Amino acid sequence: MTILSGLRITECAAFIAGPYATMSLAALGAEVIRIDPLEGGLDYHRWPVTDSGRSLYWAGLNKGKKSVSIDLRAPEGRELARAIITAPGEHAGLFITNFPATGWLDFEKLKARRHDLIMANILGNRDGSTALDYTVNCAVGFPSVTGAPGGETPTNHVLPAWDLLCGMTAATGLLAAERHRRIHGAGQLLKIALSDIALAVVGDLGFIAEVQRNGHERERHGNHIFGAFGHDFETKDQRRIMVAAVSLGQWKTLSKATGIAEAVKALEQSENLDMSREGDRFAARESLARLLTPWFAARTVAEAASSLDAEKACWGLYQSFSQLVQDDPRCSTASTLFANVDHPGIGTTLTPRSPIDFTACEPVPPGAGPILGQHTEEVLANVLQLSSGQIAALHDKGIVAGQTR
Amino acid sequence: MTILSGLRITECAAFIAGPYATMSLAALGAEVIRIDPLEGGLDYHRWPVTDSGRSLYWAGLNKGKKSVSIDLRAPEGRELARAIITAPGEHAGLFITNFPATGWLDFEKLKARRHDLIMANILGNRDGSTALDYTVNCAVGFPSVTGAPGGETPTNHVLPAWDLLCGMTAATGLLAAERHRRIHGAGQLLKIALSDIALAVVGDLGFIAEVQRNGHERERHGNHIFGAFGHDFETKDQRRIMVAAVSLGQWKTLSKATGIAEAVKALEQSENLDMSREGDRFAARESLARLLTPWFAARTVAEAASSLDAEKACWGLYQSFSQLVQDDPRCSTASTLFANVDHPGIGTTLTPRSPIDFTACEPVPPGAGPILGQHTEEVLANVLQLSSGQIAALHDKGIVAGQTR
Predict the structure, then answer these.
(1) Strands B338-343 and B347-352, how do they pair?
(2) I need a labelling partner for B120 at 20 to 30 A (CA). Which of A402, B113, B142, B230 fits?
């Protein structure tokens, strides 16, 4: 048995937050039915794509799901989608969408068909206006403090961090609502705005308080860790290593591994600082980095690693995506996180399962990215109990489509 | 009633992932008991701090929790902590830690005291070795593609994205395990490695497949959105705006709002591209950005906003943290996301509640960041049913401490 065996969630969504929420739940064993229009959702061809145009992004964010393809402009198609969303079953009746929850996806109308429906609606902004990760991130301050000190233009992140966090927040919300329904019998509508995810984090991490209580505007610190000691260094073999010391213990191991203790003592005296205090380590960050630079420059990655690991210092090697895939055993089938999976129309790729290990439940092997409409017939038959004749008629009328490309 | 009314979770953790997981569940109404050593956890003084040394970061990540302070080096203190972790109750018996799950926190030993305990153990790497957000991020490729094209050194992100996502994944895992326990009666140990969170996302977003199937190493694209059109532009009043067009609809609204349709048509002919295709928009990104640059340079933010909003184009304004707090109504009590909360020892700050709105449950008002040991007596009395005499004796022996500073 897997941890979410039996749970069924329907999805009408695109891009990252919604699909990532349900992909994560599918990776825990839930049955996830993604419903798309006949031509595919807005993200069906999102880059990166293969030479034949199949989206690697879509495959990754929709792996392990069932893909159902329906003409969502036709009233009969909408009726079918609503029937799947509100199909009976103790463990069914969960729905996630980032489309406007109006018209044919109005919550009250859906609720009339299933009184205990749980529906999560992901919005851009709380008022329903559009926002994407890129247009949220620029507004919440991080690009203005990313990159080398002195830089004048903002640096966008490449990781769609807000989308991912929004998706996982929605997954948490769905399970919280399902718990509530199990105990009290009631479903409900959840609303989650992408911009609120970012705004809440800015508050959670103390950035708002830093402005309001300290009157302090955070500056750019390049690759320095704020408020502690951590920086990157070039090695003899022209690679880069990040070291981090966010606790006194980590600082001691780093200091010991690199043999800078005496030099640090001299620095403490000349600068009147106490490096056992994280604030002082941050204040002296440039001086400390200068002490460490020659140590790394004189060593290859292998040599530095040997000394750092001997003291259990905390460090990491910078890797490109190719280097990660080619060199890092954590990113290989040597780790139970990964398996080689054949994705239809794409081929075999190293594919992750859920990063959560449930020690008393079976793991869910990583799924394949479905082809649009691959599970249309299966879902119509199993969830709606339509006969093969009824399904054939829907095909003939162009209301549904099976696997077409 | 709040969505997680009655659920009780105990925490022995520090920094971000564990504390963020439980803070997020406390914001949904769970009772969260954070147990710290007498001197506070490793993160109790984490920057940013007030002039008096109180951590704004700690307050943000632990708001709404109960703080219990125990001498965790003393056998009697450890016994108390284990008793709180394994206290009876249908909705209790959930525990999260990023400490090694060995010795006094060994799962099997804890399970012997409560057979259906659910314990989530957050690790650095899957093998138990140390990793932090900074040392994971460098390894998974993103710093090497962040920043302006041509840059040779990696750019670290400032947002601890992996920590946050790991925390929310742990929250999802805890609720999934609690669901399983409710249905089947069994608890279990969950293991979640920070580096696995990042590795899985690299797979989920198609970066691994891009290396393996396309043999392509992602490059730096500065503030361009990969595979679509989006970039930042300077306005007449020296502010910056990010525009994003990840769908054809968004491209049309942007094109219409800025009046570049004719110039785009000419570009399509001269370059033999079709801008209705997202891949072609990405290929022509520099040319398209050049077309838009004078439009923004000739307009103030207000003027540009007026035109962009009229067409419902997708855009955002770059803001520093101060500008966000001072200027953006989304980051104010005008939004129900925020309330002004008085944090003991810090003062009043704009504080977020959960970004999830559950329409059929009461919202949980944002909590205050506790002072270390603020709830020691309350928890010993309510959870362990200790008498005031017993609690006083523990105080006298130095095994527990109340609010001290």
Answers:
(1) antiparallel
(2) B142
- Residue in A161, A213, A349 closest to B161 by CB: A161
Q: What is the pLDDT of residue A405?
A: 52
Label residues B237-246 b or e (16+ Cβ within 10 Å = b): eebbbbbbbb
Do A176 and B175 meet the contact criterion of CB atoms below 8 Å apart?
A: yes
**Closest residue of B to A19, CA-based?**
B204
Cα of first residue to Cα of last residue in chain B, in angstroms, is 33
- Token readout for B83 is 């008793």
Cβ within 8 Å, pair A282-B242: no
Contact by Cβ (8 Å): A33, A95 = no
Q: For residues A301 and A86, what is the distance between their CA atoms, to the nearest angstrom? A: 56
Token pair for residue A294? 């020659």
State phi, psi for A232 to the nearest 5 degrees. -105, 150
Interface test with B, best of A129, A208, A239, A280 (most B CBs within 10 A): A208
Tokens 């329903």 found at: A128
> For residues A122 and A194, is the Cβ–Cβ distance under 8 A?
yes
Catalytic residues of A: 163
Q: Which among A141, A204, A318 has CB closest to B143?
A: A318
What parts of chain A have a pLDDT lower than 70? Answer: 405
Tokens of A12: 């009408």
What's the burial of B100, exposed, middle or buried (CB within 10 Å: 0-12/13-18/19+)?
Answer: exposed
Q: Which two tokens stand for residue B1?
A: 């009633």
Rg (chain B; Cα; Å) = 26
pLDDT, one tens digit per residue, over B295-313 is 999 999 999 999 999 999 9
Task: Dump pLDDT digits (tens) for A354-363.
Answer: 999 999 999 9
B110-155: pLDDT as tens digits? 999 999 999 999 999 999 999 999 999 999 999 999 999 988 899 9
| Helix and strand totals (H; E) in chain B | 16, 13
Report which of B64, B89, B57 is spatially closest to residue B11, judged by C-alpha positions: B64
Looking at residue B152, its pLDDT comes to 85
Q: Are strands B8-12 and A94-97 parallel, antiparallel or unpaired?
A: unpaired
Tens digits of per-residue pLDDT, B323-358? 999 999 999 999 999 999 999 999 999 999 999 999
Chain A CB contacts of B314 under 8 Å are 130-132, 135
Whole-number Å distance between alpha carbons of A237 and A78: 60
Cβ atoms of B61 and B26 closer than 8 Å: no
CA distance A292 to chain B (A): 17
Label the pairing between strands B356-358 and A188-193: antiparallel
- Single pTM value for the model: 0.98
**Closest residue of chain A to B171, computed from CA coordinates:** A172
Interface test with B, best of A357, A361, A362 (most B CBs within 10 A): A357
CA distance B386 to chain A (A): 30
Question: Cβ separation of B210 and A178 shorter than 8 Å?
Answer: no
> How far is residue B175's CA from residue A359's CA, in Å, rounded to a whole number?
15
Supply B237's token pair.
Answer: 């009043």
Active site residues of B: 163
> Quick check: A142 and B158 CB within 8 A?
yes
- How distant is the alpha carbon of residue B337 from its chain centre? 16
Closest CA to A218 of A228, A203, A208: A208
